[in-house]
Design goal:
about 280 residues, Tetrahydropterin Synthase, Chain A, about 55% helix
Amino acid sequence: MAQQELSLKKIFPIGISVLVLILVIAFWSRMTVTIPAGHAGVMFRLLGGVDTVNTYGEGFHFINPLNNMEVYQVRQLETAEDMNVLSSNGLEIKADVSAWYKPNYKSLGLLHARIGTNYLRVVVIPALRASARSVIGRYTPEQIYSTKRDAIQDEIYEEAKAILDDKYVDLDQILIRSIVLPATIKTAIESKLEQEQQSLEYEFKLEKAGKEAERQRIDAMGKAKANEILNASLTDKILREKGIVATVKLAESPNAKVVIIGNTKDGMPLILGDSK
């Protein structure tokens, strides 16, 4: 009996260890979670429900096998919607609009508890569609096609972001990838834009010609004024004085010459000579 009791005492711990090992192997996949790069996890506890406070980051985690970890991608994501919208004058336009988005990391538990993993279809796409229709409906086809495209993008972004911020989704960017108008409207707009461009070029040429004419007029006025000042300053006395100075210099020159004083026309010295 003593030997049997001793044997049982030795076998019991071994049996317990084997049982624990079997349970660990059986529940290993339930006890561990590896969250890949660019993802995050939300814990659902059997007793307590969704953990809306903690977000579990990348890497290896041990969890209670009775609980469950839901993994979300938290990298930037993209969705594109090709939709028909109405302009301000009721014309139907095709718009291809793209949104860059991702779930809010810190609020991932709230997103999972209140919206769920299908949040793209539940909140992102409806917000994008509603905002695009609302904003594009304020503009004419010409504005949408030409001058207001960037402004429309910004306004769609602001409206969609206001919706998604309350739904625990971060909106990074809105892009209008294409706008398609009816062929007749597009042709009319392009023709009008071409005429406006030609008109601007003509106005530029007229302005350039006017500036050149003004430059020439100012230049001519400057020359005339200079001549007027010069003529006013060249009196007979000044001319005689300059002539006398020139005569003196020539007289002092070693070159042979003949100098006759007293020009009968203006009284200036008359100089004749032949240099040797």
